[in-house]
Structure formats: structure tokens, C-alpha cells
Here is the input.
Amino acid sequence: MFRFVGRLVVNHPRIVCAAWIVLAVGITLVAPDWRSQTQDDDIRFLPSSYSVVRGYDLMGKAFPQDVFACRVIFAVERSDSELTDADFALVDLLANEIQTMARDDTALQISSVVSYRDPTMGSRLVSADKHCTLLQVSLATPYLAVQTRVTVDRAEARLRPLIDRLGSDAPQLHVTGPGGIGRDLIRATAESLDNTAIATVALVIVMLLLIYRSPLLALIPLVTIGVAAWVALQALALVTLIPGVHLVNISQIFSIVILFGAGTDYCLFLISRYREELESGETRRPALIRCIGTVGGALAASAGTVMVGLAMMGLSDFGKIRCAGPVIALALAIGLAASLTLTPALLKLAGKAAFWPRRISLVTPARTGGGVWDSISKVVVRRPLTIWFAALAVLIPFGLLGLQVSPTFKPIGDLSRTSQSMRGLVVVQTRFPAGEIGPVTVLLTSNQDWNTDEGREAIQSLSRGLGFLDAVAEVRSLTQPLGKPLPDLNHLFGTSPKTAIDGLARSLRKDLNAFFSTSLQKALKHYVNKIDGDQGPEYVTRLDLVLKSDPFDAASVAALQAVEAYLRADAPAGVIRSECYGVTVHTRDMAVLIERDRARVNMLVLGGIFLVLLALVRKIWLALYLLATVLLSYYATLGLTALFAMWWSGQPFGQIEWRVPFFLFTILVAVGEDYNILMVSRAIQERKRWGAIEGLRRGLARTGGTVTACGLIMAGTFSTLMLSDLWTLKQIGFALAVGVLLDTFLVRSFLVPSLMLVVWRDYEQPRQFTMTRPVSPFDDDPIHQASRTVSF
Here is the structure.
């Protein structure tokens, strides 16, 4: 098949180049804009059976005026004095501006604006020390949606001048909350994409010039991957038109990095084999056909391991991962196709000029030896067991550290402490309970109306019980909208005062009852509603729980579990179902889902790559061993990454953001097998000619320089992720770069060939064959009679 592709490309190079140009232009015209198609809607990416999704749906039915996918908090603060009347008037102006924005532009999806003037909970939005007040803006878009960034940017641009015009006496305005954090994360992701793309292209150009020292030969892979990257990104935007296929912002970063890294590797390997064919005396046309036919299968298998690994992510339940893996695999498939068609077509058109100013010299038998990798291969052949144990001694200690790593699920850990939302978060959590930015909402449905004496008594009992939980700072409900129970005035005045006082008491009680009745009616709209259920009308009430800890912290997840356990044990009579909703619920559900997905995807990745290896090497023991080596490399890399994270950020050892082990496993196991495949496939080819031991030595020597260059380029492209402002991408960049280097210089160079040598020596010794010549007229000659039987 690959020889056919080679003949087709070499015979029609101009048509191949024209086809890629037409494809690039055509797909650009029909594909939608990438940025308009990206989504990061974490709620809807979760399966419908999870708590946060059920809670979100019930919240939308019962309290549509209050439903929000995230909330932006604008904090107005004076750090050294109490807020003045002028400051509160300014807050009124800010609230009016946002409400005007919501009316004038519905695309901003602003659901509600709540300030200190809100009759239900306004007083809770002013800090106890009167230094800070909050303006809560609820959005219908999730905190990581692109529209959230647009809305928050527009709102801040509208409010900031109103603060700045007051000069040096103005209070400070902080933008935080889940919406503010999401805005900063999206902004940092976009900046990371730009930085990574520029750094990746620059690095590839420099590396290619250093490797080839020929400008045109360095330009050919760059043009190939540039065209492939453009076509791939347009293709990814195009597939989002398929129902159920979504793109997330980070997919673009990974697509570019993996495509430039792996695609450049494929071009390097093909060009290296082309040069080798020319040096052996072949002319350009047959040399190109032969190199495509020879390395095409190895490159396809190499890319296949990565694509299989990424495609297995499509079996995840978490929609963000389910869509990200296959679309990146599609990008890599386009890169492979470009490497096998566009690169040889450009080489054919370039002719002799491709290698200018260098020349291709024929390799004579006297020049076949020598070189660094020839020397390394001889050492490996002489002392395979020593080399094997030495490589294990380096990897195993770090691998044991990697086994102690546990993932974390705190999204704000991605941001720098100097980012605006993080500074605002510190202010809010200093002035208010830490959980104020993201309360846990408990939703209870019943066939009985909650606005009855029995219903209010049940709500009050539940509010009091939940308030006794250690992790709960405050409970707001129908009977205590401000976090404290409404007073019972009959108990306050008694029933048998003196006559003179009794009249005054009745009059005062009547006025106060009217006041609290009004407060109750206002709270009723916020905390109780009726919906249409499956069996008739149902009544829904909500309780908002403010926790003592940060909503994203593990302590808040533990508090949520305590709340759910309390509801299961002591829910009021008549409750049909109870649901919880909020940032903490979302964080917990994501952690559960991702851990389940990670276990499943890892097993599928291992199984898929094992089948690819088995199809290539045709030996179960060798396929298993190749898989085991990259697994050891993965855990060693994870241990080194944990040490790096501890040194760089000062965080406790073993805590790594969940995306690091997830993407590291899939990509590193697949990419690590890339280099094993390239070396082993060449060793198998050489073995047919030179035997097991010498064939493996030659395979290692012949691929050593090229694969090392490939590994350096791949590690370099991954390391550009460390230029990101996001801490997660820094860790992923470090982990992938270190992992590729381990695979390049330890696993592929020493760990794999050393054990293969031991096995082949012990169990695959060359057999003794005897060949008899046909009878000839010269058989009477004693010399020919002696040479009639030949053994080898």
C-alpha cells in the first residue's frame, strides 16, 4: 500500500501539492469560526444522572428567575475605613448600569442583579465591619464559557470608569466569584495559545535548521506541518456541526503542540530514510518510492498508537474529555497524511536543491561504521544485562514516587495569585464567610405546600439541624431568609399582660406582625414555588447553605457529603426528592466522574496500543514488554512532575491537577511507543539480513540519531506549554517534555534493546542450515566436490 502511495506521489508531485492547497482553501471557506464553536460548559458536559445536573434542571423549573450557571461578584471595598453613604450611592449606580446592560443586550445572558438593597438578603451583602459590600450578578452561561468572558469584560468596562472618575478617594472594585475566575481562566488560556503557537513554530524552525543545516530541507517539514495544522484546525471546527460534538478551548493548544511535535517527527524520519537511500546509491525517484514504502508502515503504526490512545478518550462519560481526544486524533491523522504525501512531493520538486548547500555522498563499506550511536549500540550488545539493570535503577525510584501522586480538582489552582479574580477572592473571603461566593443550594420537592404551618415548621427544623453541622456557617431558607429565624411575637409579648400594657402590646404586635408578614411574603417568592410534576403539582423549597470553607476546597466537598447524609437521614416527612446544586456539587461530581473515566480510559488505551504493537511485532512477550517500559516511564515522569510542582509552587508533594495524569498517560504512553516502534521495526528489518543480534544493533544505530532528534523536537514543543500563565499547562508541559526525554534516552535506547538482546540470545539463536548445490559438470573437480555442501 505504501509503495503505491509512494509511486503516486512521486509521479504526480504537482497534483499532490495542488490538492493540499485546494483542500486548505476549500475547508476554510466552509468551516465555521473556531472561537465561536468552542464550549466549556462543564455542567452540560456531565451525564444527566449526576447531582449537579439534576439540581440545575430542578432549579430551572422551580426558580427560573434565580437560575444561573455561574455568578460574578463585584466587591466594592475600602480597606482602611467604613463605606460611606456616597459609596453605597455608587453601588446603586453600578447595579443600575448592569441592569441596563441586561435589558439592552439579552445576548449577555444576565439573569439577575442583587445588591445591598435586596429585601430578602441585601443585608447579608454588607460585611460586618462595613468595609465591603457585594454586587452579585447571575449569568445563564457556565463559568468557563466564552460568552462568560465577553459578559464579564463588558460589565467591567462599563463599571470601571464610574469608579475611576472619583479619583484617589474612590473605593476599590474587585471582580471575582466563579464568573470572574472563569473569565481569567479563559483569558489565560487564549494568551497561552498564542504564546505556545509562536514558541512552537520558532522552536521547530531553529531545531530543523540545526539538524539539517539546509534552509530548504528545514522549510519542507515546516510547510508540511503548517498546511496540516491549518487544515486540521478547520476540520475540527467543521466537525462541531455534527450533533453532540463539542470543542473546548484547550483542544486547540494540544492539537497544535502534538501536531507540530509528532508531525515534524514523521517528516524527519521520512527525510532521514530518503537520505539513507540516496547515500546507498539510489537515484531520487526510486529512493523516494522506496523510503515511503519502507517507513510508511512504521510511521502509520507509530501515529496509530497515539491516535488509538486519544480515540479511547472518546469513551469517557465526561463530555469535555470525550470530545477532546478524538478531535486531536483527527488532527494527528491529517498530519500523518501530509507527512506521507506532501513532504515527498516537495522533496521531489526540490530535487538536488533540497540538500543545498550540503551534498549527498555515497556510503562505502569503509564508512558504514563509526558515530555516537554506532558506539552506543556496540556497548548495549556487549553488556545487555548491565545496561538493563542500570536503566531500571534510574527509573524505578521515580516510578515509586509516581505511585504516590493523587489528583486534585480545584480549578482556581490554575490561576496566579496576582490575577484579578484571585485578589478579589481574598478580599471577599476576608470580609465574609469563605463560602459566600458559592453557597450550596438544597432543593426539596413535596406534594404538600411548604407555605403552611406544618411546612414552615419542617423547614425551620431542617434549617436548624443543618446549621448545627460544623462546616456550615449559615443557612438561609423560607423561615430564616437572613440566616436567622424570624421571631415569634406571641412568645415575645406573652398572653397575659396588664390591661394598660395589653392594648399597647396588641397594637405593637399587629404592626410588627405586618412587618414580618411582608418579609415572609418576599422570602416566599425566593424560597418556595410550585411546578408540574409527573403525578401532579409539586412544591419546591430551597435552602442556601453558606459553608465556612472555600467552595472549591476538599473541606467543602466533605461538608457537602455531610449535608447529603443528613438529608438522607432526617429529611422532612413527605419529601419526594432532594437535590443539591452549586459550585461545590459540581466540583465533587467532576472528581467522581473523572476518576471513573480515568480508570476506564487508561485500560482501553493500554488494550488498544497493545493490539497495535502485537500487529507490528507479532510476539506477545515483546508487545507486553514494550507496553511495560512506557508504563514505567509514565510513573517515573509523574514522580518527577510531583517533585517539580513541589519545588516550583511550594505545594505539598503528590498533589497534581487532575488533567496532568489524565493527558500524560494517554499521550506519553502513545508517544513513548512511537519511538519504540520506530526502533523495533527497523531492527526487525535488519534482522532479516544480519541476524537477531547484529540486526538489533544496526537498528539501534541507524535510528539513534533520527529518533533522538525527533525526541528533542517533541520534548521542545511540549515544553512550550510551560510559557503558559496556567499552572496546569506548566505541569503538563514539564511532564510531557521530561517523559519524552526519558523515552528517547533511556527506554528506547537502553531498556528496550537490552532485554530484547538477552531474549534473542537465549531463545532465538541462529539455526544451522545445509544447502546442496545442483549437480554440475564440474563435480569431478575436487574443489567443487568440497564446496557442494554449504552450511550457514
Summary: The radius of gyration is 34 Å. The first helix runs from residue 2 to 11.
